[in-house]
Amino acid sequence: HEPLSSLTSLISFCQRNAVVTLGYALTGFVVLTVFLALYYWYRRPKNYPPGPRGIPFLGVLPFLGNYAERTMHKWSKKYGPVMSVRMGRQDWVFLGDHETIRQALVNQGNSFSGRPLIATLDQITEGHGIVLLDYGDWWKRQRSFGFSTLRGFGVGKRSMEDRITEEVAYLNDAIRSHDGKAFDIKSILSNAVSNNISSIVMGRRFEYDDEHSKEIMARLAMWFNDPDTSFFLQILIFMPACVHLPHDKKNIFRVTARNNRRTQSLHTTKTTTENFIDAFLGEQNAENGTDAFTDKQLLHYVRDLFFAGSETSTTLRWTLLCLIHHPEQEKLRKEIFEVLGQEKIPAVDNKAYMPYTCAFMQEVYRYRTLAPFGVAHMTNEDVNLNGYSIPNGTTIYVNLWAVHNNPDVWDEPNKFKPERHLDDKGNFVQSNHVIPFSVGPRHCLGEQLARMEIFIYLVSLVQKFEF
Ligand code: HEM
Questions:
Q1: Ligand 1 pocket mutation pick from 444, 445, 453, 455 by most atoms within 8 angstroms of CB
Q2: Which regions span the lipid bilayer (predicted)?
């Protein structure tokens, strides 16, 4: 009953009439929710993938609660392997079985290989790097550069395998320094894995107590392991407007060259192509290379490699946990001793003679899906999948966890059983139903490196220690 002449008087009115204001706000929210639900229902194209799309934020909850892969799997039993779920302002399409995922990411790979623009993450990457680049010429150029560089730096140069075996020796020493007493292996495993990336990226490793390397590790750990940060980031992905709320932006988003002189010295001192940075600068100096191979792109690319590469240490930790909780440790050691003895340095070629070790690794990949939904994809054009129409620009998630836990393929999927990957004669059977690195043109760029790292680390650790 009062004239509300300005925003200030509106605010003071709301303060004085809190209950009435709350009532209006709740009614507004309900009306808006119903309106949006009807609007989206009306707007959907013909043959649109079915799914629980009535409630605007229904799909967000399982993500915030970290049980999304199981919920989506349960829902897709009802709605099918191509299912749309409402996520706040937009629908996401979830692909829920192996056949459908291959249909989309491999058979129609070019149409399904975009990345959605997530405003919050874009603040970090500024449209650079590799993991979140949208599909197009720039991504293709960066991807093929990364692919050929990671595959090795040509004949006569140090191979990836050498770099990994060198690091594993440091890791073994660090474990030995604990004199058989219990300790948390997490930080030194992260150091070792991060050194593999360092070695590839800049041709050097860091001591495990190096301050600069500790800072890098702390930042990477914050993304994955700090519950506050990961919860906050998830909220930001679903509700980008929250980025304007007060928070320690510097801590989360900072990615800058710490020392300009250091970056400049890269340009002046390098003459040979021994590592990723050299190779990148080589492209930069080549004719027409400057537009795609800028300093800024180098910085973000390197950040992405460290970030994505740290998945390996998580897999190794799961591997050790599986060793500890299951009686397979002795079987594994027996095979390793038969092939290598206690001293011989493991090499990837030994795989051919180690079927049980390969089966053990494949079972770890299956049993604990590292990235249950991989990384979000996006359609680049209107597409048809299993008879459903999916519009251009739709966010696509593939449920890799569901593939690894499909009871039609895996007997007792929630049990850890390496033997399931061996045939009657004890030979290892590679399964194309184990796809932790995803499939198609956008599959993990570091797959070969990660597989090599995990094999050599596992064999070397079991060869030298009992966990
Ligand atoms: C066990 C360890 C790893 C797992 C389980 C893993 C898994 C994945 C998955 C699921 C994706 C998303 C693929 C998609 O979009 O369909 C991915 C992307 C990627 N991974 Fe890995 N990854 C691992 C290790 C690594 C390592 C060591 C590196 C570093 C060299 C790396 C670099 C990348 C990059 C750069 C991408 C983005 C590729 C692109 O967008 O074109 N990953 N990874």
A1: 444
A2: 20-42
The overall average pLDDT reported for the chain is: 85
Q: Domain for residue 447, yes or no?
A: yes
Please tell me the distance between residue 131's alpha carbon and the centre of ligand 1 in angstroms: 8
Question: 375 and 343 in one domain?
Answer: yes
CA–centroid distance, 437 to ligand 1, in Å, is 6
Tell me what ipTM this predicted complex has.
0.99
List per-block mean pLDDT (blocks of 10 residues) for the chain, which spans 467 residues. Answer: 68 84 88 78 82 75 81 94 86 95 98 89 85 94 92 57 91 95 92 91 90 79 65 68 60 46 47 78 77 90 90 92 89 96 93 96 96 95 96 96 96 96 97 97 94 95 94
**Residue 444 labelled as part of a binding site:** yes
Atom of ligand 1 minimally distant from the CA of 441: 41
And the tokens for 165? Answer: 């075996």
Domain that holds residue 429: 61-464
Between the CA of 379 and the centroid of ligand 1 the distance, in Å, is: 19
Ligand 1 site residues (CB inside 6 A) read 130-131, 143, 150, 304-305, 308-309, 311-312, 315, 370-371, 374-375, 436-438, 442-446, 449-450
